[in-house]
Design a protein that fits this description.
Mean pLDDT: 94
Low-confidence stretches: none
CATH class of the largest domain: Alpha Beta
Oligomer: single chain
Strand content: 25-35%
Number of strands: 20
Largest sheet: 7 strands, mixed
Strand order of the largest sheet: 5-4-3-6-7-9-8
Number of domains: 2
Number of helices: 10
CATH architecture of the largest domain: 3-Layer(aba) Sandwich
Distance between the termini: 42 Å
CATH superfamily of the largest domain: Vaccinia Virus protein VP39
Shape: globular
Structural class: alpha/beta
Radius of gyration: 22 Å
Length: 377
Amino acid sequence: MASHFGKLNVYRLPLSSKQTLLAFDQGDLLALDYIHEQQLLQPHSRVLVVNDAFAAVTCGLTEAVKMLTGGVPTLWSDSHIAQQALAHNAQHNGLALADFVPAHKTPQGAFDLMVLKLPKSHRLLKDQVARLLPQLAAGAVIIMPVMVKHLDTPLFVLLESLLGPLTTSLARKKARLVLAAKVEAGDGESPPAQTHRWSVAGLGLTLDHYSGVFSPTKLDQGAQVLLENFPDGNYQHIIDLGCGNGVQAIMAAKKWPQSQVTGVDESCMAVASATNNALANGVGSQCRFITNDCLTDMDPQSADLILCNPPFHQERVMGDQIAMRMFAQAAQVLSADGELWVVGNRHLGYHAKLKRWFKQVQQIGSHPKFVVLKARL
């Protein structure tokens, strides 16, 4: 990655020998070059980077911030993989490690420069802006790099309603900067992270959702289908892989009160939501929730049931790479007679793909859009 701040080797995580996608885009490069050209880094500057998926912008600014201020940038993200990428890319390039703040917590300012990579969710964007504005210094500059194809009129109108008058840079290689200036200093008192509470009809559960968690106002269809086709058996250690709000882990804990349930998700907000929900629904002592890259470094042959409602995208990139990684690692973590239960869209063809790692794959449940599959080693 070459910008006016120099050249860095930045990697997209999880590392893969077949990786064809870059860890940065043209919006990242445009933002770095703009900061350099406008001399926005000063000896007093505190810098915040938001939603930097693989820490490319954060690492791009680290050396200059360190030389000018003696400090480091702060990366605020909902992604465990972003935190891993920050550590990997900093070490690989001999950089100081920037600060990392998970998304359910609020970074403490005052920040003079904010690079805000716009999330796909408007609900999350509104929550982030509401919490960040009080943490900005007087005259702070807000830079929002975006690929032109993602900058539609509703998004621009929303940004204006949140930040006031905006300007935009010229487009370069299909990227553009949206720029805002905050004149008044924030008071340092941010509102708490936004949550939404709702009840799950028929299950007797009440769930709280942080703004960044998938399906924030109702039970998603995939989870509903899996719950309607829940396993029967005597399970001792259950893993909810890609736990989201924790509903599957909570129902597993209630069905098998003798078991220990581990929920795993890449999202910091999901893990925080699931932890709160397990406590609120009476199974907090039976469940633990952790951020992780799928099942990386978890004990082999340690689980006898894995429940999985896999995502089919990473950021804005669609694909089954994450699901395939989940299935491969599940085969390592399951005991010899363990079971993997998967719900997925019919068109994704998980039945055939699971056979790369599992000898027995059986369809258990059916829905016009989804299937539930049981896989055994």
